[in-house]
Amino acid sequence: MALFTFSKKLPFSRIYPRFFFTLLLRPVSSHSLQTLSDAFPRTPLHKPRFSILRHLSTQTLYDPFELIRCRDDTCDPLKLGLPELLEQLEGLSSEAEVMAVLDGFGAEPNQDLVYWAIWGLREDWELAYWVFKWGEKWGCNSEKTRGLVIWVLGNCNKFGVAWSLIRELHRSSLDTRRAMLIMIDRYTAANDPCKAIKTFHIMEKFRISPDEVAFYTLLSAMCKHGNVEDAEELMFQNKKLFPLEIEGFNIILNGWSNIAPDVFEAKRIWREMSKCCIAPNATTYTLMISCFSRFGNLFDSLRLYDEMKKRGWVPGLEVYNSLIYVLTRENCLTEALKILEKIKEMGLQLDSASYNCMIRPLCEAKKLEEARTILAAMIAENLSPTTETYHAFLEGGDSYEETLEVLKHMKKAGLGPNGDTFLLVLGNLFKLDRPEYALKIWAEMKQFEVVPGSAHYKVLIEGFTKFGWLVKARELYAEMRSNGFLEDPKLKKLLKDPVEGNNGERERGMRLGKTNVRSHHRKSSVMKWKRVGNQSRKKPPLGEIP
Predict the structure, then answer these.
(1) Residues 294-339: pLDDT tens digits?
(2) b/e per residue, 123-145, with b = 16+ CB within 10 A?
(3) How far apart are CA 195 and CA 186, in angstroms?
């Protein structure tokens, strides 16, 4: 049965999200479009991580991007003429040319024009920087605009130019605190936490106090980009300057619960808090329940939920979503639905995440019919499917036709598909021993206007090599290098020393469209398991959801 056939009979109107940059970014890049709230990249391209939490203070309170983010519904790009302006700026190679185009464009210089033009040119740091200088000439650079251009420079690894600009701002007696916090975040994003720490220490040179908020921003940035252990060590090393408080522990706990999930480390942090005589607050309980839920620990999830209420903390929607997820995952769907009803009775506003917490584990367990039923209920509540909803069905499906249908629905709903989507699909197809489908999906990426990144090439090359498709794997590696991506020593070695197997036979099977080769591969795998006896399959790494 087609995935969304049932939804056609339901009386609802699809809510299409507003995509501010549909026209704005098209002249600049062919990458898939994103809303502003998703556009600031936090980590490199990776398999999408399912997250229950949405609005915890530890995730937003010390986020430098909140200092520079503007709502995308506060101005009209067509009235500003941004699409035409960016089209004229594309390809210019000198500051003089950029200034001439901007001066002759005809639009009145204002803060919105400069801000959104810089955002549209964020992939070309020079053009963005020259637009910023033009705004400076007309006196229409806001503090958020200054923060944005620092982010663009840091995101393009132009830290030297960013520091020059910060020194200029300092000499002009402008506040550089926001810029410094953004530099801290960009250094951690560039996997250079040492320079992030150094930036924190030199804030005093710019007449900025490295206070507790700045310190927590540093810890949060380090955790957000995977340096959770280093952030924890830094917190304890500086406990004389910044006494250990619940906020710091919550930042570290968030790292071990959601960024680099590790239930043993999360429990250790919980014990450390007790040793330091620091009582958990609502955020602490929410994070810990989320962590237990992620790893399928139903008993401890419910135990902490009861303890949280006994101590006077009111569970929020995130806690109930965690319970819904772990109950569904542990085959207690009826109880999960009861919690859903309880949320409604309490007057809490249900969102798509609540339903996703049931859809995701059902899809993981290949219970697609039940997942479709939950999706129907979600739509009946006038809640639109999200990217996570579609990703869950993509990960749970094993049919090429159904996968393609979901991708088309994502595009129709304005939710992608994006690079992460195809990374998930390709990895899933190789797990299902379907390399021929992976090749078809690779061809479909162009139809969805998604530009492949190095991660896509890596997944394909490793997958095709595993199945003995060496000719195709080498073609893709050559294509990857011709597109400007750096050499990958691991892939080069893999192509020189392929996995064992009859590569020539598999290659011929691919070209001729035969299926007997795949059947032979499966039979060989069965015989291998018979030889080794009743050994259990290898467990997933601790950092992943089992």
Answers:
(1) 999 999 999 999 999 999 999 999 999 999 999 999 999 999 999 9
(2) ebbbbbbbbbebbbeeebbbbeb
(3) 10
